[in-house]
Known about the structure:
Layout: H1 2-5, H2 8-23, E1 35-47, E2 50-60, E3 70-79, E4 85-95
Antiparallel strand pairs: 1-2, 2-3, 3-4
Amino acid sequence: MVSEMISEEEITQIILDFIRKETGYTKEATFNVGFDELTIKSKEEIDENTIKFTLKHFFEEDGFSQYPKFHELEGYVTLDKEVKIIDWYLEEVYTGPSSTLGLYKQNATKD
Length: 111
C-alpha cells in the first residue's frame, strides 16, 4: 500500500511542494511569509495502489501586516503506488482583502 511505503511527513512534504509549485504561493513570491501550513483532513485508500488525501492549505503573505493577506485552499490530491500525484483538485475558498499575490484560479483537476 502507498501509506506503508512512505512516512506521513514525507507525504505531507510532497503535497505541500506540489501546492507551492501549482499556486506560486512560496517564500520566493513574498519575503515576509507569516505561515505556510498544510492540514491533511482525511485520507482514503481507493485501492491498494492509490490513496486520496483531502486537504486544507493556509498561506499568509505577510506575517507583519495588520491587514489580512492570506489564502485558504481546499481540495484533494491522489497519489499512486510510486507516490506520484495522479489526480488533484484545489479551490481557493478565501482570499484576504489585502492580498497582493492574487486569487488562485486553476480550480481544475489534472488531465
